C-alpha cells in the first residue's frame, strides 16, 4: 500500500503540472484582466500543493517551509494586482 | 491497524483532492464569465488543495503534519479573500456579468 502511495504522489505531481499548463493557457488567452489574475492565483495554489508533494517524494521535510512562504507571496501578489486594478495606484 | 486506516484515508483524500482540482480547471476553461470562473476556481481549489494536504498530513510525522495543517488553514482563509477582492475589483472597474443563453461568449464587456 505504501507503493501505491508513492506512485500516487508522483502521478499527482504530473497531473497537477498538466492542469497548471491549462491554467497558463487561460492566463494567456483570457479576454479580460481579472481572468488572468484568477488564473495566476490558481497556479499559485497548485504550486503550493506541488511543493508539498515534492517534499514527500524526496523526503526533505524542510520544503514545507518553502510552501508556506510561497502561499503567503502568492496571496500578497493577488491582493496587490487586484488593488492596482481597482484604484489605479498602490498607495 | 492505524497504518492501514491512515493509508486508506490518504488514498481516498488524494483521489478526491485531485478530482476537485481537475473540476476547478474545467470550470476555469469552460465557463463564460470572470465571475463564474471565480465561482468555479475558488471552491474547487480550496477543497482540492485542502484534501491533498490533509492526505499528506496522514503520512507525515507530527511536526510536518502541523505544518501541512497550517498551510491548509492559510489557504482556506486567503483563497476566498483573494477571490472576493478580484471580484470586487472587476465589478468596480466595470466588467458586467454575461447574461442570456449558454453560448460561451468572449467574456464580460466593459461599461462606458
List the helices and strands and how they pair.
The complex is a heterodimer of chains A (91) and B (112).
Chain A: H1 2-29, H2 33-58, H3 63-87
Helix pairs in contact in A: 1-2, 2-3
Chain B: H1 2-30, H2 34-57, H3 62-93
Helix pairs in contact in B: 1-2, 2-3
What structural keywords apply?
heterodimer, A: 91 residues, mainly alpha, 3 helices, elongated, B: 112 residues, 76% helix, 0% strand
Can you walk through the features of this model?
The complex is a heterodimer of chains A (91) and B (112). By secondary structure, chain A is an all-alpha fold. The longest helix of chain A has 28 residues, at 2-29. Chain A has helices at residues 2-29, 33-58, 63-87. Chain B is built from three helices and no strands. In chain B, helix 1 (2-30) packs antiparallel against helix 2 (34-57) and helix 2 (34-57) runs antiparallel to helix 3 (62-93). Chain B is elongated, with a radius of gyration of 18 Å. Chain B starts with a helix and ends in a 19-residue tail after the last helix. The mean pLDDT of chain B is 84. The chains are: A mainly alpha (91), B mainly alpha (112). At the A-B interface, helix 1, helix 2 and helix 3 of A face helix 1, helix 2 and helix 3 of B.
Amino acid at each position: 500500500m505504501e507503493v501505491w502511495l508513492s506512485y500516487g504522489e508522483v502521478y499527482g505531481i504530473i497531473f497537477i503540472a498538466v492542469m497548471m499548463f491549462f491554467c497558463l493557457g487561460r492566463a494567456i488567452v483570457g479576454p479580460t484582466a481579472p481572468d488572468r489574475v484568477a488564473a495566476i492565483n490558481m497556479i499559485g495554489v497548485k504550486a503550493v500543493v506541488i511543493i508539498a508533494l515534492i517534499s514527500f517524494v524526496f523526503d526533505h521535510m524542510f520544503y514545507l517551509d518553502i510552501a508556506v512562504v510561497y502561499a503567503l507571496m502568492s496571496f500578497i501578489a493577488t491582493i496587490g494586482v487586484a488593488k492596482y486594478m481597482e484604484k489605479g495606484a498602490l498607495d | 491497524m492505524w497504518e492501514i486506516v491512515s493509508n486508506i484515508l490518504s488514498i481516498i483524500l488524494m483521489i478526491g483532492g485531485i478530482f476537485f482540482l481537475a473540476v476547478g480547471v474545467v470550470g476555469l476553461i469552460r465557463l463564460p464569465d470572470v465571475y463564474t470562473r471565480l465561482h468555479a476556481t475558488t471552491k474547487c481549489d480550496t477543497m482540492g488543495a485542502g484534501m491533498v494536504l490533509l492526505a499528506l498530513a496522514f503520512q507525515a510525522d507530527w511536526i510536518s503534519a502541523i505544518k501541512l495543517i497550517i498551510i491548509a488553514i492559510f489557504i482556506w482563509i486567503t483563497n476566498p479573500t483573494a477571490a472576493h477582492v478580484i471580484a470586487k475589483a472587476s465589478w468596480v472597474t466595470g466588467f458586467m456579468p454575461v447574461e442570456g443563453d449558454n453560448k460561451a461568449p468572449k467574456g464580460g464587456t466593459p461599461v462606458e
